């Protein structure tokens, strides 16, 4: 999938659309692919990197898969990454974890769900604790910005995750754990790993799962409690309460209307425009551009079609692009470069219009509206407990 980012206020509108962060996905792990296939994949990725570097204002977040069927996957992937030199200053890498325990269990590749978690996360803890012993994985992790959880969300599970649910080492049936089960244990491991890496001065990881593309509305509840960002979020339109929570918390949502148009939801019914106007933190994103787009400028297709169909203004497009930089895996210094040195501040104080091309009055309105909503909730709570808001 892909995200977008802002243009120079002195540049043309088209140029402002092109400062974008693209997220491409080739769902082949380096371990599972044959040598010739690995070579072709790396060649194509180098080609993509060269195109991005030449365009100057485009960055990408390609996905690489770790399946959790073997503890050696990380070492193999890191070796492939380093050997073929696929790193680029215009690329950040996301690791996607497919939710396919049931397939591995039915083939007797893993004895229980805990083995999946062990294969995915134990090598990361080992590389964090002893980087000299796991040099390749340690180097590779410097280029990784986060984790994604992927698979068909419409798959139904009869199990309702709760404190009574089996522990991972007790999940020995061939049934796949529910979406919430996956998200909780991924979140728990990523959080502990991040704390350890932060103590050692190493980069940390975001948790940015696919969520709300299909399936139960409870997926969005789970992600609200565990995720840093989500991808898609279509089902938020079915729940005004969850929409409001995502708005109040400004949970970033990367939306992919062209992909959704082919798989789940007609383009004209996509809620991106509605979410943007309500003030949710949305960005435009590509998903599987080799399948759903027709040019090398996949993200430009997303922006151009959205602008034409929904009659989005230049300010709308630049706000979407600014949002994508905020929710991306770019470093603090890179975000300062593209958004301005005060980008962490709320409201217009955090907006450098010379870099983002977003009008100050737009961000002032967003900030004032959000503060008013939060103050309404505070007053409601005070009234509920018998405190006079006017005197407090």
TrEMBL record:
Its cofactor is Zn(2+). It comes from the Eukaryota. Signal peptide: none annotated. The keyword Metal-binding applies. The keyword S-adenosyl-L-methionine does not apply. Keywords: Hydrolase, Metal-binding, Nucleotide metabolism, Zinc. Its EC number is 3.5.4.6. Coiled coil: none annotated. Pathway: Purine metabolism; IMP biosynthesis via salvage pathway; IMP from AMP: step 1/1. Belongs to the metallo-dependent hydrolases superfamily. Adenosine and AMP deaminases family. This is AMP deaminase.
């Amino acid at each position: 999938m892909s995200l977008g980012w802002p243009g120079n206020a002195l540049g043309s509108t088209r140029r402002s659309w092109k400062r974008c962060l693209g997220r491409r996905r080739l769902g082949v792990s380096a371990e599972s692919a044959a040598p010739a296939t690995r070579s072709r994949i790396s060649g194509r990725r180098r080609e993509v990197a060269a195109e991005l570097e030449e365009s100057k204002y485009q960055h990408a977040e390609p996905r690489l898969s770790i399946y959790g069927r073997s503890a050696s996957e990380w070492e193999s992937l890191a070796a492939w990454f380093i050997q073929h030199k696929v790193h680029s200053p215009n690329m950040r890498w996301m690791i996607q974890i497919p939710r396919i325990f049931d397939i591995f269990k039915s083939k007797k590749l893993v004895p229980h769900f805990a083995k999946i978690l062990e294969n995915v996360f134990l090598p990361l803890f080992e590389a964090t604790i002893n980087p000299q012993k796991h040099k390749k994985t340690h180097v590779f992790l410097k280029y990784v910005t986060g984790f994604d959880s992927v698979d068909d969300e419409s798959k139904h599970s009869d199990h309702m995750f709760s404190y009574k649910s089996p522990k991972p080492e007790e999940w020995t049936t061939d049934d796949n754990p529910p979406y919430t089960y996956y998200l909780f244990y991924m979140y728990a491991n990523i959080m502990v790993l991040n704390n350890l890496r932060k103590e050692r001065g190493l980069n940390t990881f975001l948790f940015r799962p696919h969520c709300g593309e299909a399936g139960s509305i409870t997926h969005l509840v789970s992600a609200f409690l565990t995720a840093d960002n989500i991808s898609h979020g279509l089902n938020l339109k079915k729940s005004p309460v969850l929409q409001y929570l995502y708005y109040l918390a400004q949970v970033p949502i990367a939306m992919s209307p062209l992909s959704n148009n082919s798989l789940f939801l007609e383009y004209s019914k996509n809620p991106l425009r509605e979410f943007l106007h309500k003030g949710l933190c949305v960005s435009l994103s590509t998903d599987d551009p080799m399948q759903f787009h027709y040019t090398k400028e996949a993200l430009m297709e997303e922006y151009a079609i959205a602008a034409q169909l929904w009659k989005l203004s230049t300010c709308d497009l630049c706000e979407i692009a600014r949002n994508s930089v905020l929710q991306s895996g770019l470093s603090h210094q890179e975000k300062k470069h593209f958004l301005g040195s005060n980008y962490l501040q709320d409201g217009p104080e955090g907006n450098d219009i010379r870099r983002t091309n977003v009008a100050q009055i737009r961000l002032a309105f967003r900030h004032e509206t959000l503060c008013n909503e939060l103050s309404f909730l505070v007053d409601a709570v005070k009234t509920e407990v018998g405190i006079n808001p006017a005197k407090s």
